[in-house]
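Inverse folding, one chain.
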């Protein structure tokens, strides 16, 4: 499972919107300082506590194991991270309804954080888009929206 950068929200329905901002400040979860910073904030929160931090720690360990090539260890650790408990923890922390959607097709968003990322994505968007459509159609059959539903951006 990989987190996507696609979020569908009603901002006014999130009581603890400050946590969303906090998450984005600590979004580079491969940097140790960001991992510890977010964990500390979760421990101190009125709704996070040790349970949320426990799942967060397991996710970080599984991610580290996977990146290190220890796939079996990563899979074993993931068994202790039930998605429904993560959803409950996030719902409690944000004081809003939170859910996870799993898809096999992937590719629902392109992460652009820097000017170079934007340049590279513009250069390769058409190929990426075509590959994602082909993968989705192979998994799910023809898309109902048609192949022109999400055309690449046009220079202005």
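Residues assigned per position:
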């Amino acid at each position: 499972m990989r987190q996507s950068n696609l979020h569908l929200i009603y901002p006014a329905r999130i009581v603890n919107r400050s946590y969303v901002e906090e998450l984005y400040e600590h979004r580079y979860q491969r940097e140790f300082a960001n991992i510890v910073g977010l964990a500390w904030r979760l421990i101190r929160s009125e709704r996070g506590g040790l349970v949320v931090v426990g799942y967060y720690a397991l996710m970080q360990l599984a991610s580290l194991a996977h990146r290190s090539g220890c796939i079996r260890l990563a899979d074993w650790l993931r068994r202790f991270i039930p998605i429904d408990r993560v959803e409950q923890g996030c719902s409690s922390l944000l004081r809003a309804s939170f859910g996870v959607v799993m898809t096999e097709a992937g590719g629902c968003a392109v992460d652009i954080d820097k000017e170079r990322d934007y340049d590279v994505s513009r250069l390769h968007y058409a190929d990426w888009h075509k590959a994602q459509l082909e993968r989705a159609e192979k998994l799910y059959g023809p898309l109902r929206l048609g192949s022109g539903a999400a055309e690449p951006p046009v220079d202005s």
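The two ends are 36 Å apart (CA to CA). The chain has two domains: 11-94, 107-156.
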